[in-house]
Amino acid sequence: MKNLISFDFDHTIIDDNSDTWVAKCSDKMLPDWLENSCRRGFWTEYMGRVFSYLGDQGIGAAEMETIMTSIPYTPGMIELLTFIADHKDSFDCIIISDSNVVFIDWILKAANLQGAIDKVFSNPAVFDNRGYLTVQCFHSHDCIECPVNLCKRKVLEDFLNHSKQQGLQYSKIIYVGDGRNDLCPLKCLKENDIAMPRKGYALDKLVSRICEHSLCLKPFVKVWSSGSEILFHLKQLYKTCIKEACTFRVNCVLLPTSFTSPFACSFPVGVFSDYLKYSITPWDIW
After folding, report:
1. Any residues with CB less than 8 A from the CB of 120 and at least 6 apart, and which?
2. pLDDT at site 107
3. For residue 262, what pLDDT is reported?
4. Bridge partners of residue 7, in order along the sequence
5. CB 3.0 to 4.6 Å from 77: which of 12, 52, 225, 227, for a disulfide?
6. Was domain 3-233 assigned CATH 3.40.50.1000?
7. 75: enclosing H helix or E strand
8. Annotated catalytic sites, by residue?
């Protein structure tokens, strides 16, 4: 069975906030009236006004893309996503982000990493006929804990339900994030899953506070500081998957030939017996 890795984007895959980074497109600071217009829980609405302001300054798609593709990746994250892209037989990967699809697409393509990601769930964004970037809320929801435009738990649950309807169930879910809005999706994870908050960031502090009050989340919690640490754990998980798959195949081979399971002939029995002559372990066979 495959594993699912779900990433946040800002301060997780990239080492900054894409929405605040875009302000670098302008030679001037954002005006106070604009910055003061931001209301808690209505960030996407605020970013719509920011994009409109930048458009008024004559900043178009080309200038914006140049700035956005200069945003740094979190250390080790390029190597991590490259590993995932090279092992799609074992890992599906999605992004659930409160950024927008245009920024995410630009940044992934600039590093040639779009092949690692199976699906991006983020706020829809397009350039209108004036050349202004416009953004919309991802969806509506009833969660009182999340911003009005995006509940990551609902996105994750909907994705898992859709996958199940397609006949796909994941062996393990790994959720990687940093922010307050990454706490809600952790609540739908199970004991076999892994929650990975970034060390020192808001999610890490929230999870620690929950555990201090003996209200620990169901998934195993593993804090990370760089993509290299996550990569280490994925490699260990990959090795486990390989061993489990090989054990399954070996067990199928050793079934009586009269057994009617369709898996009984995964390997020709005669071939497997030749391996045994040379005392090769099941892992070597794989």
Report:
1. 94, 95, 97, 101, 104, 105
2. 98
3. 39
4. 95, 176
5. 227
6. yes
7. none
8. 8, 10
Question: What's the one-letter identity of residue 201?
Answer: Y
Alpha-carbon distance of 206 to 201, in angstroms, equals 9
Per the CB < 8 A criterion, the answer to whether 117 and 91 are in contact is no
95's CB contacts (< 8 A; 6+ apart) are: 6, 7, 8, 9, 13, 104, 117, 119, 120, 121, 122
Q: 223 exposed, middle or buried (CB, 10 Å; 0-12, 13-18, 19+)?
A: middle
Q: Which residues of the chain have pLDDT under 70?
A: 214, 243-286
Q: How far apart are CA 178 and CA 199, in angstroms?
A: 8
Per-residue pLDDT tens digits for 220-248: 999 999 999 999 999 999 988 776 665 54
Place of tokens 């779009």: 114
Say how far apart CA 182 and CA 8 lie, in whole Å. Answer: 8
pLDDT at position 251 is: 53
pLDDT for 217 equals 84
How close are the terminal C-alpha atoms of the chain, in Å?
A: 16
Q: Could you tell me if 104 and 111 are in contact, meaning their C-beta atoms sit under 8 angstroms apart?
A: no
